Amino acid sequence: PPKKKDIRDYNDADMARLLEQWEKDDDIEEGDLPEHKRPPAPIDFSKIDPGKPESILKLTKKGKTLMMFVTVSGNPTEKETEEITSLWQGSLFNANYDVQRFIVGSNRAIFMLRDGGYAWEIKDFLISQERCADVTLEGQVYPGKGADGNEKVKNKTKPEKAKKKKDTEKKSNGVKEDNRATHQREEL
After folding, report:
1. Domain 53-147 in CATH: superfamily?
2. Which residues are within 8 A (CB) of 72 and not within 5 positions of it... i.e. 6 or more apart?
3. 0.85 exceeded by the pTM?
């Protein structure tokens, strides 16, 4: 049995242990639990369309927090990006979508959704906007109405992979690199 201690001598660890003991027997409602401790919602497989993989994602993300990245077209300043994405957030709010917005660059923002089941409807709204270059959702990049001609590749996935392949091909065709800290200089 633990040694009895005077309450005035309790440190943070003792207080945390005491709180844990009190909460052990408490009945916490399911809605009050943090998202990662809630049981997943049951999936109705009759609503899944095998021809559309997005329908599966919609059902699995329902009720979960989800983030999507949005890129503003042109070369906007951070203030312009703030104003444009604020208008989009206001439009979504008026359509009863709970969306939070965070600016992460001069032309990028994150839209955080409380219910990921609505993500594809919000994505469709965003890509129809004039100043939307693209929307990244679940690793998929969807080009927007404001995308340049070279960006309008339908549903491309993570362009970094293709770049890495090209880099490795260049290395194999060019001079071999070794693992030394200094390289010998080549005379021109």
Report:
1. ACT domain (3.30.70.260)
2. 80, 81, 84, 85, 107, 108, 109, 131, 132, 133, 146
3. no
